[in-house]
Amino acid sequence: MASREPSVLRPVRDVAVVAFGQTATARSTDELSEVEMLMPVLHEVLAATGLRTSDIGFTCSGSSDYLAGRAFSFTMALDGVGAWPPISESHVEMDGAWALYEAWTKLQTGEADTALVYSYGKSSPGSLRDVLTRQLDPYYVAPLWPDSVALAALQAQALIDAGETDEPALAGVALRSRADAAANPHAQLGGDVAQGEYVVRPLRTGDCPPVGDGAAAVILAAGERARELCGRPAWIRGIDHRIEAHGLGVRDLTDSPSTRLAAERAGVFEHPVDTAELHAPFTSQEVVLRKALRLGDDVVVNPSGGALAANPMMAAGLIRLGEAAARIHRGASDRAVAHATSGPCLQQNLVALLEGDAR
Amino acid sequence: MSGVGSSAVLRAPLVVEFPFTRSLGAVQSAFLTGLRERTLLGVRAGDGRVLVPPVEYDPVTAEEIRDLVEVGATGTVTTWAWNHEPRRGQPLGAPFAWVLVRLDGADTALLHALDVPGPDAVRTGMRVRVRWAGERVGAITDIACFEPADGDAPVRAAVPHSGVFDEPVTGIVAAARLDYTYSPGRAQTAYITALSERRTVGERCPSCRKVYVPPRGACPTCGVATAERVEVGPRGTVTTYCVVNIKAKNLDIEVPYVYAHIALDGADLALHARIAGIPYDQVRMGLRVEPVWTEGGRHPDHYRPTGEPDADYDTYKELV
């Protein structure tokens, strides 16, 4: 049982995010294939570090064929890496944050000193709300086709019933996120965005993320290699991911014990953080995550605008890690928590604690 | 595939359909068979809770759980969401509320639809009852939806049930359909557009200078964008081939026939196509071929021999 394990899992090896790149997220990218969309961000992170593909010890990607309806699209995407002579490579059918976790683990083993992590999502060819129903329990839930907004709305109503939030408070989250996104050139939705009509009550248009296509890439490096490649590496002091029961009615939707446990094991509660990049596609989910991560009002939450400003599927979680790291790179943060989620109503959660060297 | 409006990008509808046939575990089988028989079953977990819908393994301990109980067909809404625009496949065609319902005797909640006229008619804590589907097959949709049951008091706690029924359901067919609008991207759009003019146009890698046909927009060796367009062919060389002996569904081609890799003149990657105009057992590596177009076709129907002498192995060995 979990209680026998140490509460904080310390990395055996110092590993840092040394470069981050992302595309602008757009509602449609018809003119680009997935590899054409992805390639610029791969080149961006390689150029930032001066590395070539052949210098990279391990490559790991995250994507899902269901989004664009293209079988084995991740093998086509690999064209953008230049995988010849053969490279050490892996793929997860998940958000790129989990690809980063796999790469971090590989670096922990000492088998590699550098890793390229990328992910992309092209949701525009399909109807995302319907596509996402295919990730649900195929026996009891998927035959009812409950779309992603409907499930988030059930969670939002549970929060309202519990007195944890109300519609004006949710609108406030939307307003703050889009206002912050005005300064983010990669955001899809920024500035003054109307809260709009109900999509599935109690969630309005403004409470939901925009549907968009995008890609992101990160380079990880271990120890001294990280210092060579980056002026101020964003050290991953802890990282963990946890999942909850798949039955929605088994869970307490107003809480996120998986986030709390992952944060505990990542060491988030040992020292105060100044910044949090939370992967909360719906306004109501920020309420849950703030509570689970015990974030006070002094913490800057989602200065990028978060997933409410740009939510490219399979990349938005990796972007949270990248945004937090980039703030450390440029000295805007000293210690940040980054979070990624997967599944309906925050079913699975990854938490990382990032830190910059003292200045 | 066709262009839409003034845009040069190609688009076409793409339908992905899959009827997954799934077998059921013992608990799932009892639950879904029970729905067919208008009996609602749950399973008792290690901590004593009754889980409805029931699962095969304990969500806390992961141990196998088999202790079935019958619960009521009435219950209480634990949360809801108003769906004013039902989508394809959802339980009701008219606006309805999504609800999580804790059935009487259960400790967890079941997701389904609640048939009420509007959002003002639903609240957390309201009493509801199952409305059974007229035709039941052993699926979650045997519950048509829930309906208000304000007068109904909680009926009973969970009572033990054997889970045994005549003719148990052992599997479900989960039909799924997703509709996409496929767009092939810049490089492949250019390739397909040129093909419709009976020209084969690849792209050259700026780094290794190889010409890829069909182009995918990136050089898989160098990982850089290809952009320089290069017309190749129309003639080419068979680098390798196979003899197809099984007739494909919906394909009006007599077997046996030959399917070959063809290195078009000027290309550094072989494409594949059918070979005709020559008996299948006379096709060979090195055979020189050319495309055969049909009226209105957007790509070559097949390739046929040109009558030239066979190519030397050395001229195409890098492309085999």
TrEMBL record, chain A:
Per the database entry, which stretches of residues form a coiled coil? none
Q: Which InterPro entries has this protein been placed in?
A: Thiolase, Thiolase-like
Domain of life of the organism encoding this protein: Bacteria
The molecule here is called Lipid-transfer protein
TrEMBL record, chain B:
Q: Which domain of life is it from?
A: Bacteria
- UniProt entry keywords in alphabetical sequence: DNA-binding
Residue ranges of domain ChsH2 C-terminal OB-fold in the record: 69-132, 230-293
Q: What is this protein called?
A: DNA-binding protein
Q: Cell inner membrane: present as a keyword of the record?
A: no
Q: Name one Pfam family in it.
A: zf-ChsH2
Domain ChsH2 rubredoxin-like zinc ribbon: start-end pairs: 194-224
Q: Does the keyword DNA-binding apply?
A: yes
Q: Which organism is it from?
A: Streptomyces alfalfae
GO molecular function annotation: DNA binding
Recorded hits in InterPro entries, A to Z, give: ChsH2_C, ChsH2_Znr, NA-bd_OB-fold, Thioester_dehydratase-like
